């Protein structure tokens, strides 16, 4: 029972981690919370769904399509809603408000395009069950675990080993220094927003598979969870987002399994409040102020 | 190599630089001295494209670089070691050096890295440590090494001696002279006037945004006004 719930929790948590990574990357280079991330995630879910149902593309094709759609939305958001504000000297809150605008716009657009009712992926992926040493794991769970951990590993490796990844980290730590070293920080910002949004879009498909329900309002709840994980893990910390996401998922699943199912969010967020009392800078955050600006 | 004409810049209503002229000949060390708030760091920021000037011209190798993006100025052959060193504390020493070469696509990056390790052996010893764990002097060495990794033709140094122990300061100045002898032109901004004038051929004195004096470094060192204001009235040895 315990290990079974552990597996379920880690599966759910890995999707939270993926969403939180998107927040973390953008917070790192721009020092803003992207309030539209949840809606980009929701759009990814719908694009994946349409690709899987209307065009009969396999689940990997749908995932890829959702990530591309996320990246495109991220690009548009950066060009239309964030960059014009960076050029002028405006209040630090302006880009935050601007992303809230983007989120409302995307949600309304989704209502119009896809309708308000919840839709679900075709059942082919959810039926198979595997038994490994007494644990029951569905094919969907394996898929989610493999894809989200795969993406996280690739991201980690990419950030630490490649020149582009290092440029992102340098920009996140100090944008002016990165600029002085010859990094085209404008380009890095676009790239980071696109990357974060692609991860969000991909996470949309995975969450859609896990809960078997996709609706235009799903971005809000998931967005808040990703946001909570961002803070729990320590603002702008990649490892923190991963561990924090897994923790939140496990906490939620356990609160359901041990009898307080209607309080699952209350338990999970209550735990975050307690953790933040003990470590205000987040699990992996440092004492110094985070972010590049 | 670098020629600044009638440059004015500021922050909002504050005019930090009032029509200054400055020129740095190829192969030389030029010192820009002045007290706190004289506008030295502003001048560096304007040259590197971090701050847009209100008017005036900045010519680098005959090209106007006024309004050009910072990363393009770096690829043109300019590099700044900023005030306060700005080490990337969450990246390793090695990664800091690699970031210095982030625009280079040639295959001599590794050879340059070895050269920098030869000049600063302590950096090689600590190459896998995070930049934030280094001492002030080591961070300064890293900042200089990192700037050299882009193979600049003109190296700008903004207060390299700030906050360092006297022994380390003389080491840093020796290194600056060596770098110059190996062919890199240097523009040095300093409050440590005595040392700055000792290694420079030419010097400019900036006071509240205006260039009040310029000339051969040894003449500036013997200028009564400079001696009184910056050198405590004593003659430089």
Structure overview:
- The complex is a heterodimer of chains A (293) and B (237).
- Chain A has 293 residues and is mostly helical.
- Helix content of chain A is 73%, strand content 3%.
- Chain A has a single domain, classed as Orthogonal Bundle (ABC transporter involved in vitamin B12 uptake, BtuC).
- In chain A, helix 3 packs antiparallel against helix 4.
- The N and C termini of chain A lie far apart (47 Å).
- With 237 residues, chain B is an alpha/beta fold.
- Chain B has a single domain, classed as 3-Layer(aba) Sandwich (Rossmann fold).
- In chain B, 37% of the residues lie in helices and 26% in strands.
- Chain B contains ten helices and ten strands.
- In chain B, strand 7, helix 7 and strand 8 form a beta-alpha-beta unit.
- The model of chain B has no long low-confidence stretch (mean pLDDT 92).
- Chains A and B meet through helix 6 and helix 7 of A and helix 2 and helix 3 of B.
């Amino acid at each position: 029972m315990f290990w079974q719930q552990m597996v379920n929790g880690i599966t759910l948590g890995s999707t939270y981690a993926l969403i939180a990574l998107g927040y973390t990357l953008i917070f790192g280079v721009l020092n803003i919370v992207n309030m539209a991330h949840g809606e980009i995630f929701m759009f990814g879910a719908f694009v994946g769904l349409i690709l899987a149902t209307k065009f009969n593309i396999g689940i990997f094709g749908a995932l890829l399509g959702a990530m591309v759609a996320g990246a495109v939305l991220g690009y548009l958001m950066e060009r239309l809603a964030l960059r014009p504000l960076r050029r002028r000297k405006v209040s630090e809150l302006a880009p935050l408000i601007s992303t809230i605008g983007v989120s409302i716009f995307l949600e309304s657009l989704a209502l119009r395009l896809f309708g308000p009712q919840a839709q679900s992926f075709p059942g082919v992926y959810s039926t198979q069950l595997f038994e490994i040493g007494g644990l029951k794991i569905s094919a969907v769970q394996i898929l989610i675990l493999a894809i989200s951990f795969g993406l996280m590993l690739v991201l980690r490796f990419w950030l630490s080993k490649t020149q582009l990844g290092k440029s992102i980290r340098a920009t996140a730590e100090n944008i002016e220094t990165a600029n002085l070293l010859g990094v085209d920080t404008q380009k890095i910002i676009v790239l980071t927003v696109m990357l974060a949004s692609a991860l969000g879009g991909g996470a949309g498909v995975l969450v859609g598979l896990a809960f078997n329900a996709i609706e235009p309002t799903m971005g809000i709840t998931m967005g808040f969870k990703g946001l909570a994980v961002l803070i729990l893990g320590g603002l702008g910390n990649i490892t923190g987002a991963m561990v924090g996401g897994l923790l939140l998922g496990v906490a939620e699943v356990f609160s359901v399994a041990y009898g307080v199912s209607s309080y699952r969010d209350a338990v999970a967020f209550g735990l975050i409040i307690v953790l933040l009392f003990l470590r205000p800078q987040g699990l992996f955050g440092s004492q110094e102020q985070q972010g590049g600006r | 190599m670098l020629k600044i004409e009638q440059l004015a810049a500021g922050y909002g209503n504050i005019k930090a630089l009032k029509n200054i002229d400055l020129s740095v000949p190829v192969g030389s060390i030029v010192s820009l001295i002045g007290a706190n708030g004289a506008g030295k760091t502003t001048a560096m920021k304007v040259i590197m494209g971090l701050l847009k000037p209100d008017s005036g011209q900045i010519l680098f190798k005959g090209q106007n670089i006024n309004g050009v993006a910072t990363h393009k100025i770096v690829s043109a052959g300019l590099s700044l070691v900023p005030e306060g060193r700005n080490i990337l504390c969450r990246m390793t020493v090695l990664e800091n050096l690699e970031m210095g070469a982030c625009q280079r696509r040639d295959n001599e990056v590794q050879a340059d890295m070895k050269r920098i390790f030869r000049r600063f052996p302590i950096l090689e010893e600590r190459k896998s440590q995070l930049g934030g764990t280094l001492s002030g002097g080591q961070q300064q060495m890293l900042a200089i090494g990192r700037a050299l990794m882009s193979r600049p033709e003109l190296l700008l140094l903004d207060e390299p001696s700030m906050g360092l122990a006297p022994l380390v300061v003389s080491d840093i100045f020796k290194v600056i002279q060596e770098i110059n002898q190996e062919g890199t032109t240097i523009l040095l901004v300093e409050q440590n006037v005595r040392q700055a004038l000792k290694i420079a051929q030419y010097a400019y004195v900036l006071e509240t945004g205006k260039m009040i004096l310029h000339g051969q470094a040894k003449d500036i060192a013997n200028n009564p006004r400079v001696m009184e204001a910056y050198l405590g009235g004593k003659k430089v040895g």
